[in-house]
Design goal:
heterotrimer, A alpha+beta (96), B alpha/beta (394), C alpha/beta (181), B: Rossmann fold, 6-stranded mixed beta sheet, 11 helices, 39% helix, 19% strand, C: 6-stranded mixed beta sheet, globular
Chain lengths: 96, 394, 181
């Protein structure tokens, strides 16, 4: 469902089945957050703990091996900042 | 050729599921259904049926596993009775809502309390609004035929709904009687392989049973309601094809000597044939009586029933309910018959009776009493609000 | 239509005899129905089983209250169960008893048709156990031969008891020979 118009009853699949795997990418939750994680790459050890713990799968690995949050989906929960063993993630105010 | 043989009806029903080559049997034993699942367990254990027999710890799980199996592309069968069905209830509703064409053989039995293992229709009536196709069998042959056909109806791509076949516990399940049993070659091609269009498959992922927010739920329910209403076309087509191939005809509403009858008894299940015997006997004394059976309970056959009851001859329809709706008009079937005829000016009087609760035999003179109650109501021109319990000590 | 009521004790095989008789009739192409009195089975408790036989399809499915024939598998039942209840006036009672029909009639104060057979002795001698269900079928067919064909009854006895088929059939035939009326 690409956030288009809501389906009419005869447009639904039987049993309201969703036959489009991974369609949650169309649902951007990034604007839910008040605080956003900011990674200090000078301290990052590329361990991937943030990537493992993120409940929204918002961390993506870049070509250098660093993990960066995708702000389109990050809800700002702060779990990554708490779990980071290198203490390199800080939660900063979205508006700053 | 189909072989006519003496067989216990329960065993025949299990053989009907085996004839359909079910992939999964998920069931928990309960009187009077036990022989059905025992026999299927035996067929699987002996290697005569290539199926998975899932021994579960409750009926709730039996239905859950059947639902999961059905959506994973397996032809799934379960069977239960009374308290077992009541315990299943949550998943019974979900199975139809998720469009899983599970087939259930339901040995109709009363609900506790007091504890009763005997026959009436309180179990199926309790599940009336769960969205299953629901069909009544009157004898062993019908229970066998209808169970086999249930797979073809439910699995049809235009239907995809679970089907419940009702047959009276003990009164049918525990009787040895002659039944024509098919062999595999004979039914070749009748039942196509089962394909669910949105089967659970890791290669082609889909989501079954998602959350339906308030902006989706209404549409989902409307679609489900439309699906069961439309299933009627398929039900009729399957019954027609069966008749053409095997020579036995099934109708949504069955009539017996109703054409010139003044009073008819409206029935479901094994009492239908007993009522026919009463009609035959009493017609010798000049009583113009007949029988109308609502074989197809869901989807409700409104038009067929109107046609059967508003035939210009019938003045009173006495509806025999085998369950009670407490605090209501008592009669569930009676209420539905009345509702179906409500807007017709030339409708017959509808009188409700109930009898045969918790396994009590309905004797010949009690059937006569039911018809006579109809005649009395006609004479007094009074349609009783509530059903009259026949055979009650008072 | 002929309606038959079997009186036995739980575990004596009353239901099995009702079924074997029905199967033999169905095999002929006629109609029959066999069923137990519905309830919880308990070994030793008095039980009932029923067979209906007809040339037409059978539509009635309630218990049999006015039988044409009653069969009593165990003589001790005569003391505790009203076995003649509802028996039609020209009906037949087939009873497992050492006594002659005359003796038993006098004892039970019953003057209808009566067939007796010492089924317990036959069962003990042929099978080694006092299970009289198949034996009593022999006496039943002696009392009313047109009910079913001997050969079909024997066929289903053999099917039901494959390991002791020969003994069961011999016991069945002995009862047919030794039944007294």
């Amino acid at each position: 469902m690409k956030m288009k118009e809501k389906p009419k009853w005869y447009e639904l699949l039987p049993g309201a089945v969703i036959d489009e795997p991974g369609n949650s990418v169309f649902y951007k939750t990034g604007d839910w957050k008040t605080l956003k994680p900011v990674v200090d790459k000078t301290k990052c050890i590329k361990c991937g703990t943030c990537w493992i713990f993120c409940p929204e799968y918002a961390y993506e690995k870049d070509e250098y091996g660093y993990f960066n949050p995708n702000y389109d989906y990050c809800k700002g929960c702060g779990i990554c900042a708490v779990e980071c063993p290198a203490r390199c993630i800080k939660m900063e105010r979205e508006e700053d | 050729m189909a072989k006519r043989r003496g067989i216990e009806v329960s065993i025949a029903i299990a053989e009907a599921a085996a004839l359909a080559e079910v992939d999964v049997v998920s069931a928990y034993p309960i009187t009077p259904q036990t022989h059905i699942v025992e026999h299927l367990a035996e067929l699987v254990a002996n290697g005569e049926l290539n199926a998975e027999f899932i021994t579960v710890e409750s009926e709730h799980t039996a239905m859950s596993a059947a639902l999961g199996a059905s959506l994973a592309g397996a032809r799934a069968f379960t069977s239960t009775s009374s308290q077992g069905l009541a315990l299943m209830n949550e998943i019974v509703y979900i199975a139809s809502s998720m469009r899983a064409p599970v087939v259930m053989a339901l040995a109709n039995r009363s609900l506790s309390a007091p504890i009763s293992i005997w026959n009436d229709h309180s179990d199926v009536m309790n599940e009336r609004d769960t969205g299953w196709i629901s069909i009544f069998a009157n004898n062993g042959q019908e229970a066998y035929d209808l169970t086999f056909m249930a797979f073809k109806i439910g699995e049809h791509p235009d239907v995809l709904l679970p089907v419940m076949i009702n047959f009276d516990g003990f009164i049918l399940t525990h009787v040895v009687e002659p039944i024509y049993m098919f062999d595999k070659e004979e039914v070749e091609g009748f039942l196509p392989p089962y394909h669910h269009p949105y089967v659970l498959d890791p290669e082609r992922p889909v989501t079954h049973g998602p959350v339906g927010l308030p902006d989706i739920y209404t549409e989902a329910k409307k679609q489900q309601e439309e699906a069961i209403r439309n299933s009627r076309k398929v039900i009729d087509a399957v019954w027609k094809e069966f008749d053409e191939r095997f020579g036995r005809r099934y109708n949504a509403v069955e009539t017996y000597k109703a054409d010139d009858a003044e009073v008819v008894l409206v029935t479901q299940g094994s009492v239908t044939e007993a009522a026919q015997v009463v009609v035959d006997e009493m017609r010798k004394q000049g009583r113009k009586w007949g029988v109308v059976e609502i074989r197809l309970w869901r989807p409700f056959p409104f038009e067929d029933l109107k046609k059967a009851l508003c035939n210009g001859s019938i003045k009173c329809a006495v509806v025999l309910d085998r369950a009670i709706s407490f605090g209501g008009p008592l009669g569930i079937v009676m209420s539905e018959v009345r509702a179906a005829l409500y807007n017709l000016s030339d409708r017959p009087m509808v009188v409700g009776v109930t009898a045969g609760l918790g396994g009590r035999d309905i004797r010949f003179d009690e059937y006569v009493r039911m018809f006579e109650l109809g005649e009395e109501c006609l004479k007094e021109e009074k349609e009783p609000d509530r059903v009259i319990i026949v055979g009650l000590r008072e | 239509m002929v309606e038959i009521r079997f009186h036995g004790r739980g575990g004596q095989g009353a239901v099995t005899s009702a079924e074997i008789l029905a199967l033999a009739v169905i095999e002929e192409g006629r109609y029959a129905q066999a069923f137990p009195a519905f309830g919880a089975e308990r070994r030793g408790a008095p039980v009932l089983a029923f067979t209906r036989i007809s040339d037409e399809p059978i539509k009635i499915r309630i218990g049999i209250y006015e039988p044409d024939i009653v069969i009593v598998l165990d003589p001790t039942l005569l003391r505790s169960v009203p076995v003649f209840s509802g028996l039609k006036e020209n009906g037949i009672a087939v009873i497992n008893s050492k006594k002659s029909p005359e003796e038993l009639k006098a004892e039970l104060n019953y003057d209808g048709n009566l067939v007796t057979v010492d089924a317990t002795s036959i069962a003990m001698e042929e099978l080694g156990v006092p299970i009289t269900n198949v034996v009593m079928l022999g006496a039943l067919l002696k009392a009313k031969p047109e009910l079913a064909k001997m050969e079909y009854v024997e066929k289903f006895i053999a099917e039901r008891f494959p390991k002791i088929a020969e003994k069961e059939v011999r016991a069945f035939r002995r009862a047919y020979e030794e039944a007294r009326s």
